[in-house]
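Hey, quick one: can you model this chain's 3D structure?
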Amino acid sequence: PHENSTISKFLTVSIGLSTYSGDGQINYSDLLRQADQALYMAKSLGRNQYKIYDPDELGTMSMRMNMGNY
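Sure thing. Here's the predicted structure for all 70 residues.
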């Protein structure tokens, strides 16, 4: 229980994941940015879940947010 929270009585976990296949080059900052975007999506979809970075899915979310439908 998390009695002092104004959001919920229970602690939940939201996780954003970014993966690297070993092909091509990517730096730490880009991987971290991708994981952060996935975390934001997990939280916006109701929290207490995980999301794996998917640029196509994030683009759709961005369009929904711009239209006010999130």
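One thing worth noting: The radius of gyration is 15 Å.
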